[in-house]
Every structure is written in C-alpha cells, then in structure tokens.
Amino acid sequence: MQTTSEPSSRRRRIVIGLWVLFALGAALLALAIPLRNVPGEAEAANDDLTAAKTALAAGDMTAARAALASAQEHVDKAQDAAQGFGGDVWSRIPLLGTPVADARHLVQALDDVAAVAAIGVDLYPSVAGKQASLFRDGQVERATLDRVIAGAREAGPFLKSAQRELEEVRGNTPILGSTISARRDAAAEQVNPLADGFTRLEPLLDELPAFLGFEGKRSYLIAMLNPTELRYSGGAALAFAPMAWEGGTLEIGRAFPSTQDPRLLVPHKWEPVRGNTFHAENARLANATFAPSWSVSGEELLRAWRSATGVRYDGVMAMDVVTMAKVLEATGPTTVPGVGELNGDNLTETLVGSYDDYYPDPTAQDQAFATVVAALQTQLFSDGDYVAKAQALKQAADGRHFAIYLKDKQLQLAFGEMGMDGDLADSPGDYVGAFTQSLVGAKVDYYQRRELDLDVTLDEDGTATNELDVLLLNDTPPYAVPGTDPREGYFTRWSTLSVAAFLPASADVEDFSVGDQEWDGEVGTFFDHTFIDDHVVLPPGGSTHVKASYTVDAAAELDESGDLVYRLAIDPQGTVYSASVQVTVHLPKDFRAKTVPAGWTEEGATLTFHTDALESSEQWEIVLED
User: Fold this and answer.
1) Closest Cα to residue 456, out of 571, 548, 584?
2) Which residue in 193, 79, 161 sits closest to 616, CA to CA?
C-alpha cells in the first residue's frame, strides 16, 4: 500500500532546494554590491590620471601630484571592490563571471598605470620642462642620471604587467562584452606603445653612461644632411661639427660646411665596409654615404673622414634639416642674426629651399647653413626640455631623417633597438623601400615628389606576387638665374638620378623598368635585401614610373595556431616631402582577415592602406584564416 510520505518528501526537497537557491542568490547579490562601485571609481581614476598628465604638460607639479593622489585613491577603492572575496566568487561563475574577471584585469591594469604615472611625476622635474636638472651648463649630473635610469627600470615591469592584464580581458559576453572590449582597446592604445617602448629602451639603460663618456671619453662626428642632394641613406653630408663627451661633460665644436675644408672636397681612398655594394672608389667625402643603411654608411663616412683628415671618431650622429625643424617644433622658435626667426614651419625652406637667393655665389648659402646649424646646436643641447627633444629626435629617426652609428657594438645594438640606427627594416615577410640618389652635384631633390603603389596578391602557400609602381615627379619651378640651365650645380632644375627598389632577400624579380628603359636583368644584393636600380634624367616638371614585378616566398607564414600571417614593412627615404603610399593586398581564395591593422580598410577579400605622406617606417602584420 502506497503512503503519502514520498510526495511529501519530494516537496520538502524542492522547497529546501528553492530556499538554498534563494539564499545563494541573495549571498551572490550581497557579494556583488561592492562590485557596482568599480566602474565609477575606475572612471574617476582615469579622469584624474588625464588631469595629472595635463598639469605636467603645463608644468604645474602641485596640481599634477594632487591629481595623481586622487587617482590612486580611486584605484585603491576599485581594487578593494574588484579583488575582494565577492570578486573572487563572481569571477568563477561560468558566463556570468566573465565580465567580473574582465573588470578585475582592467582595474589591475589601471593600478599598474597609476604606479607608472607616480614614477613619471617624480622624475618629471629632472627630465622635462625648461628647468630640468639632468643636463645643465654642458654637464650631465650623474646622480640624476642614475635616478632616471632606476625610475625607468622600476616603471618597466608595471607597464609589462598592465599589458598582460589587458591581454587577459576577453570582452566577449552578451550585453557588457562590447563595452568592456572597447575600454580594453582604448587602454591598450595607451599602454602598448609605452610597454613596447620600454622593451626597446631597456638595453640602452645599461649603455647610456658609456655613451655620455662616464666610462672614458667618447668623440662623435655630427653630420648635417642636406636632402636637396639625396643619397640612398638620406641627404648628402655637407656640413659637420665635432662632439665629445667625457665624464658627462659635453664639448661641441662649431658647425662648418665641407666647402670650408679643401681636404673634404678632393677624392680619397679608404677601406670599404665588407659587403657594401655601394662603396665609392676614390671619392669625395660627400659620396661616402651611398649605402641605404647607416650602420654601413656611418662606418664608410668615418673611414673617409679619417682618410681625409687623420682624425678618428667613435661614431656618427647624422641629422637633416627636417630633424632640426622637428626640434624647433618641440622647443620653440629661435632667432639667428642675419637670418631672422626660425621655427618648425619655415626652417627647411629657409635653409635649403633658397639657393636662387644666393646667385651668383651659392657657397654663401653654405655659410648661412652653417650659421643656422650652429644656432640649432645650441637649441638642441641647451638646458631643459629633454623629453620633448628626445621625442623629436625619435620621430625624426622613424622617418629616416636622423640616425646614430657607433663603433661600440653594444651601444649600436642598444640604439638599434630604439629604431635610431637608420638601417633598412630587417623583418620576416615582405618589404619595400624605393630610394633615389643624385648622380651630379645638384640641389634639385628639394622639389622631388613620389607616389608609391604596391599591389600584392597572396597565395595560400604564403607566396606574394607583387607589382610595384613608383611615380617620380621633378616638380620644379622655372629656371630662375641668367643663362642656360647647365643641368647640374646649385641652380639647375634638371634631376639626374639613380633609382633603386630594395626588396626582401627572397624576392625573385621578373621585370623592372624606369620609364621606357629596358632592364638589363641585373639584381643586386645589399646584406639582407635584394635591390634593382637604374639611372634616369628628369627635365623640369618631368616625371617617370619605376615599375617592378616580383614574387616573395614566405611573405606569409603559418603561426602556431595555424593561421596564415602576412607581414609587410615599408621604409621611407629622408626626403623634404614625404611620399604618398598605396598598398593593396588580395587575399587567397576562401581566406579572410582575422585582424586588420590600424589605418587599413577591408572590402571583401581585399585590404588597402593609403597615406598621403609616409612619415615613418611601418611594419604591419595581417592574420588570415580560412
């Protein structure tokens, strides 16, 4: 006979279960109460960090420290709420806990950034602003230098930690996922460049005292480059100044044009750098820098200098007028007697765009150039604004307007990690650099314009079939001095050039042409790059197309997850006017882009990039999946 005990027991279990679920839900709600404060505290902390940055830029240290203290207070409250027991519990709940776990990573990243900001505020008076104490009266203060290096080392792990925390944020849940991922991406845009920058800077921290002469005197040759007469490495080195560091004390000589020293105007012989295809035999000093990489051209220049003068230097600091203009943009204008006020906007044209004004004696412009450069040296090496000056030099180096070559291999590697060695990009995958150099002593490259168009068709095996088309335009005004244009010299409007396309070492060139000239079939090698070149003469207002058809094996390779990754690097040349660039990449059949780099657009199976002015070396990575 069946009793009523079983239904009653079942009802009791259901009721108890419901009460347990209710109690558990209530407990979870109670644990979630502190979490509701996290977004507000994090937003307030972020606002305070922005305010601290603004105050620093204005030189208001009191306001910066107050904003930073407030930011840290908000960060601490967000951490207490997110990293507490409630956060631990919620973050482990499937699906529902994902946004909580993401929020914890975001808050930890914010905490790391606040720690970096605190270090920055502490070091700011030493390295930034007009009263910075790191370098004063021609002397680097060693104690301050050590403190700055220690601060950078302390900040590095926080930056890397913030980067790792942001990488852990998934942002893939319904409703909140898009908001969380947007905040992650916005934070990564700020954190990643700083973290990556520290990775590049870290090797230099150990070597910087040696560069500044604290481990023995170091002497460097400053080479002023003139982009109106191009070499593959940038502007021709036509003015110089000696520089020495000993025990942190700077000695710098007055800049002078090469025309003032007869030894620099006659041919010399020197031992070539091994493997340098562009070594010039029995040449003037101005022709020592034909090689496109400064680790080669810098050594060639030092050997040529020693042959001409008997003086040995430990390195070269090469900078053109665009670099000087960027320094003036960062530090403000300067007034040069006999020239007037110079600033970032008018410097380049004043220095190298005005040869007609010196007719019939263009060498007078060389002296004016040296006078202006001397004033700019004072501006560059004067007290204060070290951060702004360093940023200006780095920006110039990114555009191949500034480079450092050092005989000390460890120092050279350290500056190379910072992207300041002036070498061609050496990265896996695809590459292109289209450069010209003047074959006669002319200053017409000031007017050169160029448009680079690269069309890439990828195969599923990673091979790239490329079509390169570079338009060169000699966009000159009419010949402005009496007589017939001699097609060379300071005043000519004719451009006589060597034109080269530098490609990956694995490139298989099928065709190459400059205008209607037939290709001789020769392909050269410059260390880790293949190149093809030819000569061309462009009349005033004339133009030509430089075209190349070639394939690149392993332009794209499979990564560990099985995705096909296409990599492309493009280097600019240090010209007055930056080249426009158009890149079109056609994907293999049935493939799509898993990631599209910033600045690129996607339309079906085609990716495109365009810029009116390529002002820095670029390296892109496109991940594809089928």
Assistant:
1) 584
2) 193
Tokens of 591: 């493939």
For the four alpha carbons of 145, 416, 418 and 373, in that order, the dihedral sign comes to positive
| pLDDT confidence band for 39 (50 / 70 / 90) | low
Query: Please, what's the b/e burial string for 227-256 (b: 16 or more CB within 10 A of its CB; e: otherwise)?
Result: bbbbbbbbbbbbbbbbbbbeebebebeebb
At residue 498, φ and ψ (nearest 5 deg) are -100, 135
CA distance 31 to 541: 74
Helices 61-82, 98-127: inter-axial angle, 10-degree rounding: 160
pLDDT of residue 130: 64
Q: Helical H runs in 135-251?
A: 142-168, 177-211
Contacts of 390 (CB under 8 A, 6+ apart): none
What does the pLDDT average to over 371-393?
A: 80
Q: SS3 for 335?
A: strand
Exposure string (b/e) for 363-383, b if CB count within 10 Å is 16 or more?
eebbbbbbbbbbbbbebbebe
Give DSSP secondary structure letters for 86-110: HHHHHHTSTTTTHHHHHHHHHHHHH
Q: How many CB atoms are closer than 10 A to CB 124? A: 18
Q: If we measure between CA atoms, which residue out of 229, 366, 242, 374 comes closest to residue 289? A: 229
Enter the tokens of residue 465.
Answer: 């079939």
CA 177 from chain center: how many Å? 33
pLDDT (tens digit per residue) in 539-589? 999 999 999 999 999 999 999 888 999 999 999 999 999 999 999 999 999
The Cβ of residue 47 has, within 10 Å, a number of other Cβ atoms equal to 14
Take residue 583 and report the two structure tokens written for it. 């890149």
Q: Which two tokens stand for residue 562?
A: 């099985």
Q: Encode pLDDT of 170-217 as tens digits.
A: 766 665 556 666 776 776 777 787 788 888 888 999 999 999 999 999
d(CA 319, CA 223): 6
Q: Which residue has the tokens 């070290």?
A: 386
pLDDT of 32 higher than 80: no
Longest dimension (CA), the chain: 129
Cβ atoms of 154 and 146 closer than 8 Å: no
